[in-house]
Amino acid sequence: MPVGATAVLAAPRTEPRLCRRLAELGLRPGMSVVVGQRTAAGGRVLRSGGSRYAVDQATLREMDVLA
Q1: Mean pLDDT of 20-48
Q2: Which of 1, 15, 35, 61 is the most core-located residue (most Cβ within 10 A)?
Q3: CA separation for the pair 16, 4 (Å, rounded)
Q4: DSSP state, 1?
Q5: Which residues form the Ferrous iron transporter FeoA-like domain (predicted)?
């Protein structure tokens, strides 16, 4: 997705442990995020409200968006 695009997170397609960790960080299904810049390792920065989340490329592959 391009920088500045808005997306709604769906439930991640991954192991329960990672789902819990993402929820602990505040990244939950149904949450609206804005896609930010790429990180050095190919991940992305996601913004929601006043929070920013750096998500690595492998985790991004496991995440789906609704819009």
Answers
A1: 93
A2: 35
A3: 29
A4: -
A5: 1-59
